[in-house]
């Protein structure tokens, strides 16, 4: 059996997990890969006491890995944008294949990296970045290759999902966020997770591979979960819906929708059952219908599982000297379509609206009339006498699917009414039809 030499950059959570699983399962991985995958070099800012590197060369300089002629595959697990970009491009220039778990890098610099890799004839694989241990990129790029994919929707940030799950018990966002930080689920700076930026990185990549379009992270819409209240969660539940922080990408004739925001999903749908830190991605293909991929979206060995699957794919190419490659985004570069990301005013969605109305006769009729004037049909309406407070009563409305432009204009008029008070709360809803 041939040897394929791997160099790991970054020995943190995922780097350590990758080292441990590759070492522990070396024999069975060799049996699957048809070659021996040997870690020959590791570089990280610090060495770890809990990992026995044995004879493996260690340095604190990550560029030692890309400059080592004996290394066939560079595994980038340092994270971040700029140094990771330089590292990956240097590896590619040196003719090395790359495996990374860095979704931020791929979402932002992927077009440049893939073009360079295409030129150099090397693979840059990134499965682990999208949904940790869930092999969803493999499913989209290979398993679903026969399909026209019309939409993708996913719970692709475990921290946000944990927070929304815990809030169903009536707890406030800030309290649960603090708990998530104490448990190590959320970073000290939780912005990327709770504002939807991390999910948007992943969604950008999913959409590109699903629809065959270049990566357009800068045009993705993100809305976080900090303004979601236990009140709206409870009332959505009463309407038969659950609030999830979803990444949604939809292919339309005029462009693609690329958006991350809190979303009401039917409680009866499988994705509503995905709780805690777990992730799930729903993909709708014209031939297969809806498929869902579910599991751990993070964690040292769960993420290593996906990193190593990519290493095995690459090792087979190295060992067999094959020229056969699955295209980076699932489509050969010439087949990528320049479909633009649609503005949010042009997206189509159903909506949950919470309007604070003055408790007087005729208000409901005025609200219904404004919605009707904007072509918005009401799916259900909820108003409870028991919730009257200081002469005000919440009116909760679920609409049919309309264009966001229509809802925006209707909300402007609703807020202008003398019979309503304060801003209208608006949460998008999805029925997955
Ligand atoms: N954690 C997960 O569950 C998970 C899941 C999916 C994807 N990912 C992605 O995987 C990547 C790694 O994440 P992680 O959680 O393993 O991060 P981490 O625990 O912070 O590990 C990063 C490692 O790289 C080292 N490092 C960073 N910059 C370096 C540099 N310039 N030179 C040398 N060493 C450097 C760090 O050293 P110091 O500690 O000394 O700074 C640390 O050992 C990220 O792109 C992340 O988004 C993570």
UniProtKB/TrEMBL annotation:
Name of the protein in question: Homoserine dehydrogenase
Organism: Marinobacter antarcticus
Pfam family, one: NAD_binding_3
Keyword Cytoplasm set for record: no
Residues bound to NADPH: 103
UniProt: L-homoserine binding residues: 187
Amino-acid positions noted as binding NADP(+) in the UniProt annotation, renumbered to this chain: 9-16
Pathway: Amino-acid biosynthesis; L-methionine biosynthesis via de novo pathway; L-homoserine from L-aspartate: step 3/3; Amino-acid biosynthesis; L-threonine biosynthesis; L-threonine from L-aspartate: step 3/5
Top-level lineage group: Bacteria
This enzyme's EC code(s): 1.1.1.3
Keywords noted in UniProt: Amino-acid biosynthesis, Methionine biosynthesis, NADP, Oxidoreductase, Threonine biosynthesis
Lineage of producing organism: Bacteria, Pseudomonadati, Pseudomonadota, Gammaproteobacteria, Pseudomonadales
């Amino acid at each position: 059996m041939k040897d394929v030499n791997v160099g790991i950059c970054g020995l943190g959570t995922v780097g350590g997990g990758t080292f441990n699983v590759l070492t522990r399962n070396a024999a069975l991985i060799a049996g699957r890969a048809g070659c021996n995958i040997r870690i020959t070099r590791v570089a990280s800012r610090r060495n770890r006491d809990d990992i026995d590197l044995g004879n493996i060369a260690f340095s604190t300089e990550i560029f030692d890995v890309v400059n080592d002629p004996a290394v066939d595959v560079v595994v980038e697990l340092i994270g971040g944008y700029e140094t990771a970009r330089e590292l990956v491009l240097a590896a590619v220039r040196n003719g090395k294949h790359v495996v990374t778990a860095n979704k931020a890098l791929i979402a932002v610099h992927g077009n440049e990296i893939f073009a360079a890799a295409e030129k150099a004839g090397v693979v840059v694989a990134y499965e682990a970045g999208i949904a940790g241990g869930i092999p969803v990129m493999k499913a989209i790029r290979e398993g679903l290759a026969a399909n026209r994919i019309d939409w993708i929707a996913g719970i692709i940030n475990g921290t946000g999902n944990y927070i929304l799950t815990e809030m169903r018990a009536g707890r406030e966002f800030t309290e649960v966020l603090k708990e998530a930080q104490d448990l190590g689920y959320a970073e000290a700076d939780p912005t990327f997770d709770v504002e939807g930026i991390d999910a948007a990185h992943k969604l950008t990549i999913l959409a590109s591979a699903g629809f065959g379009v270049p990566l357009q992270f800068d045009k993705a819409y993100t809305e976080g979960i900090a303004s979601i209240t236990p009140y709206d969660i409870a009332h959505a539940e009463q309407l038969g819906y659950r609030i999830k922080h979803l990444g949604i990408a939809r292919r339309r004739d005029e462009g693609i929708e690329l958006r991350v925001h809190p979303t009401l999903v039917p409680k009866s749908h499988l994705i509503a059952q995905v709780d805690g830190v777990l992730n799930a991605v729903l993909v709708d293909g014209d031939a297969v219908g809806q498929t869902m991929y579910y599991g751990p979206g993070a964690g040292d060995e769960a993420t290593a599982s996906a990193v190593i699957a990519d290493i095995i794919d690459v090792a087979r190419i190295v060992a067999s000297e094959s020229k056969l490659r699955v295209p980076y985004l699932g489509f050969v570069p010439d087949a990528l379509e320049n479909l633009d990301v649609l503005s949010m005013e042009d997206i189509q969605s159903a909506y949950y609206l919470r309007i604070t109305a003055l408790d007087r006769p005729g208000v409901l009729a005025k609200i219904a009339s404004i919605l009707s004037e904007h072509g918005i049909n009401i799916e259900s309406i909820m108003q409870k006498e028991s919730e009257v407070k200081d002469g005000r009563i919440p009116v909760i409305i679920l609409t049919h699917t309309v264009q966001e432009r229509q809802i925006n204009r209707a909300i402007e008029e609703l807020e202008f009414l003398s019979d309503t008070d304060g801003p209208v709360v608006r949460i998008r809803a999805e029925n997955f039809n």
